[in-house]
Design a protein that fits this description.
By secondary structure, the protein is of the alpha+beta class. The chain has 20 helices and 14 strands. Helix 2 packs across helix 3 (35-41), helix 10 packs across helix 11 (291-299) and helix 16 (435-446) packs across helix 17.
Length: 508
Amino acid sequence: MQVTISTELYRRIRKLYLVEKRSQREISRLLGVSRNTVRKYVKGAVPPPNDSKNIERISPLKKAVEPFIIQCLEENKKQPRKQKMNAQNIWEFLCKEKGFNIGKSTVRRYVREINDVRPEIFIPLRFEPGEAMQVDWGEAFSYMNNKKRKISIFCAALCNSSAIHASVYPNASMESMYIGHINAFEFFEGVPLKCIYDNLKTAVLSGSGKNAVLQERFKRLIAHYGFEAIFCNIRSPQEKGLVENMVSTIRKIAFTPIPRVKNFAQLQELVTRKCVEYCHNHHIKNYKDSIKIMLDEEKKHLLALPLVPMDPAKTVIARVHSDLTVYYKKVKYSVPASLAGKKVTLKITPFNVSICYQGELIFRHKKAENEHDHQYIPEHYLDILETKPRAIDNALPLKQGIMPEELIEFRRLCRHKDKNEQLVSILKLGKEVPKKDLLWAVNMANQSGNPDFGLISFYLDIQKVPDEDNINNQFPTETISIDLSQYDNIMMGGKKKNEKIRTDKTDS
């Protein structure tokens, strides 16, 4: 029978023989092992095997159930997500269908071990210049007006050069996705032959992979920009190939540390700048050239941009209600009184709701982020308030309307009983004077601590008084020739110059 010894016993045999020069008989006696074992290992002719505790021993039960577990896991790959078998289902299958007497925790451990040692195999991919762009969504946090909020990030990367671009939005809506495409194409100065997706719900109506059924509006985007859409199979990120950790890269370069901005426009400017810096300065390991050099080359192979970008807005037809508002997703948006009762077109983007009538833009609202965050514009109600003055004190468009900070501050500071009527009068002034001049006057009046309409009118009048430079420009100075001899006559009481001289001489 073959004798197995531990590494420690092997070390002691070799030390006694090499260092202490002991005989094989003496080593056998000191260590309590047979001479045959000492003879086998003493001169180092046979390296010791691994310790028995490190030798994996597969139990007969595991050998018996492992083929069935592997079969179940392979079948899972073909099944919809909600119909895949988990460890509980596999355990029930082995006990009821195959008759094994095995514990649930044992099956769970076997499933975990098999998954760990059976990674999915994929082939590394390489794309030609201009061939493909990878698209994905990610999330990050930003402080916006000192309030922490979650941001949706539309990420795009050219698969040959690894150049990246990102657009930021309040959410991953269909409109956000379309604008993200357009921004990426314009950033890269061209369109790739194909775009690769991970089955975005905003693009896919149903199905996945080759069987994906596309949204109609997404088909319009494809047609206008001339690319082909490729959809990966469910949970097969390796099919997207090249741009590894694209979302993580954008989080690292643009959202670490968490940025502090005032609005989405400022955040987008920051993110775009970081993407430009990354494309200009980064060199990916194992790539021959830098991203900048490869991007400059790849741009030559991209499809030309269309002469006119596609309008990504969602279009909705709505009727203007008697309160001068249209409804969209439980939010009211006000319109001018002239459109009451008429049908208008709403064009919705991630940040705006534009009101159009007969093809003409009437008003553009900032899109509300929360339900019932109604967007009343007080100017839309001025004509009605003139005919119904008793409604002024309780008018919702005045109490909750969208107004500049200067007017909100006026309403807070004004201590007059008729401050709402004064506010209406100020809003009417906006039809007569430039907005910036009016807001300057309101701001100056607010600094008094108790502003009113009269004080605002005073500051507007001050603005109308031309300054010294304007006066000089309006009344240019003419050069007038003056006879200086007249000056002498005046100073001498009207006497002629010669007389004065003679008198002086006589006196002297």
